[in-house]
Structures are given as C-alpha cells and as structure tokens.
Design brief:
Elements: E1 4-8, H1 16-26, E2 29-34, H2 42-45, E3 48-49, H3 55-68, E4 73-76, H4 79-91, H5 99-106, H6 108-118, E5 125-129, H7 133-140, E6 144-148, E7 158-160, H8 163-179, H9 185-189, E8 190-195, E9 200-209, E10 212-221, E11 234-237, H10 243-260, E12 265-274, E13 277-284, H11 295-300, H12 304-312, E14 325-331, E15 337-343, H13 345-349, E16 354-359, E17 366-367, E18 378-384, H14 387-400, E19 402-406
Parallel strand pairs: 1-2, 1-4, 2-3
Antiparallel strand pairs: 5-8, 6-7, 6-8, 9-10, 9-12, 11-14, 12-13, 14-18, 15-17, 15-19, 16-18
Helix pairs in contact: 3-4, 4-5, 6-10
C-alpha cells in the first residue's frame, strides 16, 4: 500500500507545493489539511479543511479522517501548524515531538528561559509588557533588541541603542502586534527585550531522528546583521568557518533540541559566533523558510521536502555529500510603496554561476519592508566550485538589479 502523509499547512503557504512535488516524485500520497475550503487550488480545495487556530476541533477532524484512512506520518509546515501536527501524531501514536516542546520552540520567551535553564548560551533577556520595556532595557543594557514573542521572519524585531530609539521602536512594534493575526492576548501586549549579541551569524538546517541530530546544511551569512532591522540576504554553503567552530555550532543546536525536548523531524536554527563562543539566537521545529530549501538539493542531492517526507514515512534517507558550493540571495524590499518593475533581470541571470532569478512579487503589488513586512521580493540562486565564487556571483547579480518603486497614495476621506 502507498504511504500516506498528512501535511498541515496554513492556506497559501509557499512550503506546501514543494512537499506535493516531493511526494509525487517519491510515490507518497499526501493529504493537505488547511483552511482553504474555497480555494481554487486543487490540493487545498480537495484536502481536509480545518482551522489551525481552533486546535481541539482541528484535532477531532484529523482523527476522524485517520479513522477512515490512516497516515504513516504527519508534518506541520509552518510555525502555525507544527504544534497541531505534534498533537495529532501523538494521538495517533506516530513518531512525534512532544507538543509542549513544539510550543516552547514557537514562543521566544519560553524558549529563552528553557535554554537558559539548560545552560545553553543565550543573550540576557526579559519578557515584559510593552509599557515596561524601558526598565527592562536599562537592566539588560544597550544596545538591545526588542522582539515580539511569536512572530517569525524577523517581523517586528528592532535593535535600539538609546531611549529615544526605544520609544520609536515600541510604537512600531505595538502597531505590528495590533495588526498581526493568530496571536493570543499575551503575545499582543508583551515583548522580549534582550541584549544585542555581536558577531557573525549562521543558519543551521538539521533533522532529528529519535533525538539524534543530523546537520543537513550550515549556511554562512556573509553580510553583517547588526540592525536596526534584521533582514537576511545572503546564505552560502558549505560554511567557511573552521571545523572546530562548526563542531561547536552543531553541539549548541543539539543542546537546544534536547533542552526543548524535540526528538523528531526538521529543525532550523540561527546562531551567532563571537570571541565568547556560539550563541543560540532562534530555533524552530520546522524547515527553513522561503525558497531557500532548494539549496539543500545542491548540498545533499535531495530536496529538503524529500528528506522530511522520508523521515515521516519511517524511511529516513542518508543525504549525499556534494562538493559544490551553493547560495541564495533573498532579495530585500528596498522601500515601501508599489512595485512598478524590476530592471536588469536578464543581466542578473547572465552572471556566471547564477542558476535562477525569481521575482515573487508582481507589478502593482504593495511592498512592505521590515520590520512591518515579513516577505522578500524574490530569490537569486547560484552554484559554483567554492563559496567565494558563489557569494561573488550573488553580489554581482544583485548589483545588476534595479527595483523601481512608486509611492503608495492613499485616498483621503473628507
């Protein structure tokens, strides 16, 4: 019989279709669980219709479907669905993470406290109401970083160096939290204040199997991420850090997984390195965001989604080791407004070692940069014999692009 996997995904998630493509390639049957009842997309429209924010009802629907036609595994694609996936897998006695462990990973304040108690190196922090941020900042010291408790993709994360910047940041974050969907009251009224950690940053993509961590890829971020906002741009693999530094990074991420209680499936972590060692900045119980997962194919010979589905089916794949280097540029949104056009696409595509230039935002759509926004204009992928060549190609392609943005005019009501 064909293996059947349930994929729980927010409607419109860009992670859904790579999973569908991987499943077709592997001969695995997938059912998409989402709130896309009226979607024109077949996978959503013909899937299992649930509301991830109503977990009890959603869980009942999943269990009823499983009683009719069982699953060998359950995968949550995004932060909004990983906890429900863990709950469903636990109820069906399938390989799973403890739902509490996933909940800890999703909430930055609980994650910080958990890691601190376990002896993992994290910044000094305070979880406080927005009205108490000034006192917390004085305690942890400037420069410090103010961040929401439960948003992803660096949305609402702001570095401040003094009281004046702090006041402005709090006003912006309050507006972001007011507009955000899917937050509970505490997540709208409270934030995390933590001391800024200088250093170089790396991203880690890993896979857990019965508590054992396998590093799939280690990405260098060659651009400094010093704020005031933390928009990521360049990811390059394999890492150019020393073998000892890479071993320290792996140890730090493994410590964090154990501290949370995570044991199964993908993890994505962000770490910083400085003279004091490795600091765990963020870690989520899911795959990397955006289209960046394509880089795993260059480094392992498999799509990331293939590795996740194989693990969910109880048939983990041992990734290959490929000598080539690869990288991605997540094209930043230069300023707020309406996208008119992106010039220089052919020139960027012709840069040696560039494999693909993808613009995701269509002309006429509104652009919202960080910290209010949470998406990218598009992606540039490159592959070469060394990380240095990859980085140079991405920078040359970026320089060839010109993003034309028109002001956003809002109608005035008399």
């Amino acid at each position: 019989m064909t293996d059947r996997v349930l994929i729980i995904a927010p409607h419109g998630s860009y992670r859904t279709f790579p999973f569908i493509e991987a499943a077709e390639k592997m001969g695995v049957e997938v059912l998409i669980a989402s709130e896309g009842k009226h979607s024109i997309v077949s996978a959503y429209a013909h899937g299992l219709h649930i509301d991830c924010t109503e977990q009890d009802q959603a869980l009942r629907s999943i269990l009823a479907e499983a009683a009719q036609h069982g699953f060998v595994g359950i995968v949550g694609t995004d932060d909004a669905s990983t906890e429900l996936a863990a709950m469903a897998a636990k109820a069906l006695n399938l390989p799973h993470n403890d739902p509490l462990a996933v909940a800890i990973a999703r909430r930055k304040d609980r994650a910080r406290e958990c890691l601190h108690q376990a002896g993992v190196r994290v910044p000094e922090f305070r979880q406080v109401a927005l009205s108490e941020v000034a006192d917390a900042a004085a305690q942890v010291g400037y420069p410090c970083v103010i961040k929401p408790l439960a948003l992803s993709a660096s949305r609402g994360v702001i570095r401040v160096d003094n009281m004046s910047e702090l006041d402005q940041a709090c006003r912006r974050i309050a507006a972001i939290l007011h507009a955000a969907e899917g937050l509970v009251d505490e997540e709208r009224s409270h934030v995390l204040v933590e001391r800024f950690v200088p250093g170089t940053e790396v991203a880690v993509e890993g896979m857990l199997n019965a508590g054992s961590l396998q590093i799939l890829a280690l990405f260098d971020k060659p651009d400094p991420l010093d704020g005031p906002y933390f928009e990521e741009t360049y990811y390059v693999t394999p890492s150019r850090h020393s073998a000892a530094e890479q071993a320290d990074i792996e140890h730090c991420v493994a410590q964090a997984c154990a501290a949370y209680g995570l044991r199964e499936g993908p993890v994505h972590a962000e770490c910083r390195l400085n003279e004091q060692g490795v600091w765990l900045i963020e870690m989520a119980a899911r795959t990397i965001g955006g289209l960046c997962a394509r880089l795993l194919r260059f480094g392992t010979g498999y799509q990331l989604e293939e590795l996740v589905l194989a693990q969910a089916c109880g048939k983990p794949i041992k990734p290959e080791t490929i000598a080539e280097a690869a990288g991605v540029l997540m094209l930043p949104i230069p300023r707020a407004g309406v996208l008119r056009r992106v010039e220089g696409l052919l020139a960027a595509q012709r840069v040696p070692y560039v494999e693909e230039v993808t613009i995701l935002v269509r002309e006429g759509h509104q652009l919202v940069p960080l910290p209010e926004g949470s998406s990218y204009l598009g992606f540039v992928f490159a592959r070469a014999s060394s990380p240095a060549l990859v980085e140079a190609a991405l920078r040359e392609a970026h320089a060839a692009l010109n993003v034309v943005v028109a002001p956003l005019w809002e109608a005035q009501v008399a």
